[in-house]
Amino acid sequence: MNGLGDLLRELTPQVLAALVRRYGHFDTAEDAVQEALLAAAQQWPAAMPDDPKAWLITVASRRLTDLLRSNSSRQLRESRWVPPEQHASADDDSLVLLFLCCHPSLSPSSQIALTLRAVGGLTTAEIARAFLVPEATMTRRISRAKQAIKASGVPFGLPADDRLPVVLHVLYLIFNEGYASTAGPSLHRVELSAEAIRLTRMVRRLRPDDAEVAGLLALMLLTDARRPARTGPHGELVPMAEQDRNLWHAKDISEGVDLVTAALSKGAPGPYQLQAAIAAVHDEAPSYAETDWPQIVGLYELLRQISPDNPVLALNNAVAVAMVDGPTEGLALLDDRLGDDHRLHSVRAHLLELSGDHAAAQASYREAARRAMSLPQQRYLNARADRLTDG
Amino acid sequence: MKYLILAYGSQRDYDAMAGRPAPGAPTWTPQDFEAMGAYMEKLNNDLAESGELVETRGLTAPAHARRLQLKGSDLVVTDGPYAETQEVLAGYWVVECDSYDRATEIATRLFHVPGPAEIGPDVVVDIRPIGESRHEL
C-alpha cells in the first residue's frame, strides 16, 4: 500500500501538469486529478493498469470534461488571454507547476499549501495536519490560492527564471517546517522535510547548473543528516554541542559536502550555498568544541553582507562569535529585533550561562520556554533553567 | 486529389462515449467504445495500406475548445463556447485518392461505425476537396 502511495505521489504532479498543459483550467484540473487519484486508490489494489500514468491522465481528463461541462453550458467564461512567452518542454512540466504554485499573487502560506498539494501530492488533510490548522481552513486557503491564480490569467508556461528564488524559498520554508516545527507536541514533521528534499532534488534535475539550487539541496541534506541525534529517547531536544555525532547520517553529509563544494567553485555564492557551507563545517567537525568556529564566523560575515537585515543570521553569528571570542562578545551582538522569538532568549540564556551569570541565564531560559511553541523545546529550556537552580 | 473528410459530433456524443450519457442519449457500453475504436483503427489501417491516408486526427470534447475573437481591440478568449447539442468538428481525415467518388466511398464507411443501436440518423459527414494552391480556391 505504501508502494502505491509513493507511486501516486510521484505521478500526481506529472498527471496534473499534463492536464493543465493540454487543457488549461488549473483549478478544475486539480479537482479532476484528485478524483482520478481517489479512483486509482480504490481500483488499483484489485487490478493494476499496464501504464498507470496514462490511466490517471485518461480518467482525470474525462473527469475534467465533466467538471467543465457542468460549468460551461451555464456560463461562458471569458478572459483576457496573454500569449505564453516561452514554450516549455514536457520535461519542465513539474517545474512549471512548481512555479505556478509559487505565484507572486499568493501569500507564502498559500504558496506552501498549494505546492504541497499540487506538486507534492499531499492531501489537504495531510497538509492541514502538518500545519496544525483545521482541514476546513486549509481547504479554504487552497481554494483561494487557486482562485487567485485563475484570476491572474497567467498562462501555463515556464515563466522567466526570476521566480526561481521564490520557489527555493518556499521549499526552504517547507523543509524548516518539517525540521523544526514551530508548534505542537512533536519536534519533527519528518514527512515535510523529506518532501522538501524530494522536490528540491526534482528542481535540481531540471536546473542542474544553478548553484543556489545545489546549495539549497546541500543545506537540507547537511541539516537533515543531524536529525537522528537531535532528539533524545523521550523526544527531548538535544543541542548540537551534546549530540552523538555517530548518529549523524554520513551518506547525506558526504553528498551535501560534495554538492556545496562544487557549487561554491562556480563564483559568487548565494545565501543557500553559504548556509550550506556553514552546515558542512559543523557536520565535518569531530566535536562541537573542535568546530572551525573562525571559518563559521567568516561565512556569517559573508551572509550578512548579502542579507544585512536578517535577525536570525545575526543571532547565529552571535553564537559563532561567542565560540571564537567569548560569551561577552557574543552577548554584545544580540539584537532585540527578535524580542518575541524564543530563539533570542535561549541564545541569550546560553551565553549568559557560559559567562557565569547563572541568575540572569535562568531568567532568560524561562523567558525562552514561555515563548517556545513546541513542547520538546519548552521541556528542554525549562530543564536548562532547573539545572541552574540545582547547581 | 486530396480531400478533407470531416466528421461532426456534439458534447452530448462525447459525454455518451465517455460512459455518461445525458437523459435520452444513447448509452455507450465499454464494449461499444472498444468496437468503435477497432473499427476506426481498421479504417485508418486500410487507408494507410492503400496509400490514401495523408493524415487523420480525432479532436477532444468541445468542452475543451477555446474560441478567440476580437471585441473592439481586445482579444477575448471564451472557453467551451458550444451548446451541448451543437454539432462541432469531432475528427477529420485527409485522404489522397483518385476521385471524389472514391473519397465519398471512404467517408461512407463512417456511417457503419459500430455503436449503440440508437445512433445513426444524426450522423453528418462532410467532404471538402482541398485546394492545392491559391488558384484552386
TrEMBL record, chain A:
<dbReference type="InterPro" id="IPR013325">
    <property type="entry name" value="RNA_pol_sigma_r2"/>
</dbReference>
<protein>
    <submittedName>
        <fullName>RNA polymerase sigma factor</fullName>
    </submittedName>
</protein>
<dbReference type="InterPro" id="IPR014284">
    <property type="entry name" value="RNA_pol_sigma-70_dom"/>
</dbReference>
<dbReference type="InterPro" id="IPR036388">
    <property type="entry name" value="WH-like_DNA-bd_sf"/>
</dbReference>
<dbReference type="InterPro" id="IPR013324">
    <property type="entry name" value="RNA_pol_sigma_r3/r4-like"/>
</dbReference>
<comment type="similarity">
    <text>Belongs to the sigma-70 factor family. ECF subfamily.</text>
</comment>
<keyword id="KW-0805">Transcription regulation</keyword>
<dbReference type="InterPro" id="IPR046531">
    <property type="entry name" value="DUF6596"/>
</dbReference>
<dbReference type="InterPro" id="IPR007627">
    <property type="entry name" value="RNA_pol_sigma70_r2"/>
</dbReference>
<keyword id="KW-0731">Sigma factor</keyword>
<feature type="domain" description="RNA polymerase sigma-70 region 2">
    <location>
        <begin position="8"/>
        <end position="72"/>
    </location>
</feature>
<keyword id="KW-0804">Transcription</keyword>
<dbReference type="Pfam" id="PF08281">
    <property type="entry name" value="Sigma70_r4_2"/>
</dbReference>
<dbReference type="Pfam" id="PF04542">
    <property type="entry name" value="Sigma70_r2"/>
</dbReference>
<dbReference type="InterPro" id="IPR013249">
    <property type="entry name" value="RNA_pol_sigma70_r4_t2"/>
</dbReference>
<feature type="domain" description="DUF6596">
    <location>
        <begin position="163"/>
        <end position="263"/>
    </location>
</feature>
<dbReference type="Pfam" id="PF20239">
    <property type="entry name" value="DUF6596"/>
</dbReference>
<feature type="domain" description="RNA polymerase sigma factor 70 region 4 type 2">
    <location>
        <begin position="99"/>
        <end position="148"/>
    </location>
</feature>
TrEMBL record, chain B:
<dbReference type="Pfam" id="PF03795">
    <property type="entry name" value="YCII"/>
</dbReference>
<feature type="domain" description="YCII-related">
    <location>
        <begin position="1"/>
        <end position="109"/>
    </location>
</feature>
<protein>
    <submittedName>
        <fullName>YciI family protein</fullName>
    </submittedName>
</protein>
<dbReference type="InterPro" id="IPR011008">
    <property type="entry name" value="Dimeric_a/b-barrel"/>
</dbReference>
<dbReference type="InterPro" id="IPR005545">
    <property type="entry name" value="YCII"/>
</dbReference>
<comment type="similarity">
    <text>Belongs to the YciI family.</text>
</comment>
